[in-house]
Each structure stands twice: as C-alpha cells, then as structure tokens.
Amino acid sequence: MLKIENLQVNYGGIQALRGISLEVPDGKIVTLIGANGAGKSTTLRTITGLVKAASGSIKWNGEELLGKSIDKIVTAGIALSPEGRRVFPDMTVLENLKIGAYLRKDKAEIEKDIQWVYSLFPRLEERSWQLAGTLSGGEQQMLAVGRALMSRPQLMMLDEPSLGLAPLVVQDIFKIIQEINRQGVTVLLIEQNANMALKIADLSYVLETGNITMSGTGAELLADERVKEAYLGKNS
Q1: 117 neighbors 150 (Cβ within 8 angstroms)
Q2: How far is it, in rounded angstroms, from Cα 37 to Cα 23?
Q3: Residue 185 sits in a domain of what CATH number?
Q4: Cα distance between residue 115 and residue 11, in whole Å
Q5: Is the pLDDT at 151 greater than 60, yes or no?
Q6: Total domain count for the chain?
Q7: What is the pLDDT of residue 234?
Q8: Which residue segment(s) compose the domain that 202 sits in?
Q9: Per-residue pLDDT at 84 exceeds 90
Q10: What is the mean pLDDT of residues 172-194?
Q11: Treating both helix axes as pointing N-terminal to C-terminal, what angle do 137-149 and 107-120 enclose, rounded to 10 degrees?
Q12: Is the pLDDT confidence value at 86 over 50?
C-alpha cells in the first residue's frame, strides 16, 4: 500500500502540490486525472525521488520514502514509465529492456522476465534487435512499459501512456495495463484520456491546481456530472 499524506511540493515560488493525501491499495488500479499543470506528473516524480517534497509523507508498506535515493525506491518495488516514453533510441529493444533490470543481480530470473515482457508485448519480441528509435510511437510506449516491468515492481506508475497514440493502439495499451494488474502488479495511472482511465480504475482522484478535489471509484467519477463536464466532454 502506498499512502501519501499532506504532500507539499514547491517549484521555485510556485506551489505545485498543496498538501495532497491519497492511497493506492495493493492489487488495485488507481488513476489520477486532471488538466495539464494540475500536479499529476509532479506527484509521480516525487514518489520516485526525482523531485524533493517541501513537507508531508509518502509511505510504501509503512516505510517512509521521502529522503530515500532513487535506486533504493526502485529496489523497494516501485517503477515509473515516464511521460514521453524516453526510450534509448540508439539501443536495441532488448538492450532497453535489460537496462530496466540494472539494479538486479539474478541473471536467470532476468531472462525469465524478458520472456514475460515478450508474452505481454509479442511485437517487442519480433523487434528485439531493432533500434528503439526506429519503432512506432505505440511500440516505443510498449517498450517503456516493458522496461519499467523489468525491475519487477510491486507498484507500476504510468505517466500519460496513451499520449499521442492512435485510438486502436490506446485500446491495446489499456488492455495490457489491466493484464499487468491481473498478474499481481498494483498500478498508479496518470492519464489525459479520463474516459479510458476511469473505466479501468478501482479508485480515482481528481487533481486540480495542486489540490485533490474529488475521489471515488472509477464508476462513481464516470457518472459524476462535474467530471463529465470538465474531463469527458458533453457527449459522455
């Protein structure tokens, strides 16, 4: 269980997060929706140690994460698939996947996990020796998710996985997120496609200008008129 309490983050003179509290229960898919600049990516980056918090608490299975190094947070079982994919373009698909396991020493298990990632993303196996920079946007997103899975996370955080992808590819990515969850990985998802995110979420939060303004099950927020008007469009 990930538990965030009264988390405040400042960028220069701007308060990016104004004392947010949320929970990500084990085995669930939790989504955080909100407009650009609401503080969604800042939340994930603070959990992983990339951004320092001004105050508050982030506990993972009862242990405080604030102040820990990024490698310790990854070793504790938390992985981030970042916005914009960030694959290594001049390395092959396989090399990118192996980088995801850089903190691990169990070589035999790493090989098994490469096969596990290939079972989730058969297209990556077909292109294992292809340079990542030559893949399509959808394939690069699959590679970014696969690379994060190679650290064998208990909690997988995804930052805008559908950004810039064709609708059919988006559907594939969301199916894979659900499959990863079915296989025992807890998921914290940030997504501008609020409709798709809420449909698969067990628990959802709305973040607006650094504050959590609403929370509930995915179904509850999908049915809420304020959410429909702000994030789902009038025809939803």
Answers
A1: yes
A2: 21
A3: 3.40.50.300
A4: 41
A5: yes
A6: 1
A7: 52
A8: 2-232
A9: no
A10: 94
A11: 150
A12: yes
What is the strand order of the sheet 155-159 is part of? 78-81, 155-159, 186-190, 29-33, 203-208, 211-216
User: What is the residue type of 168?
Assistant: L
Written as six digits, the tokens of 104 are: 């691990």
Closest CA to 186 of 20, 5, 17, 31: 31
Give the pLDDT band of residue 236 (cuts 50, 70, 90): very low
Position 207 confidence tier, pLDDT thresholds 50, 70, 90: very high
DSSP the chain: -EEEEEEEEEETTEEEEEEEEEEE-TT-EEEEE--TTSSHHHHHHHHTTSS--SEEEEEETTEE-TT--HHHHHHTTEEEE-TT----TTSBHHHHHHHTTTT---HHHHHHHHHHHHHH-HHHHHTTTSBGGGS-HHHHHHHHHHHHHTT--SEEEEESTTTT--HHHHHHHHHHHHHHHHTT-EEEEE-S-HHHHHHH-SEEEEEETTEEEEEE-HHHHHH-HHHIIIII-TT-
Query: Could you identify the residue written with the tokens 């990016």?
Result: 16
Arithmetic mean of pLDDT over the chain: 93
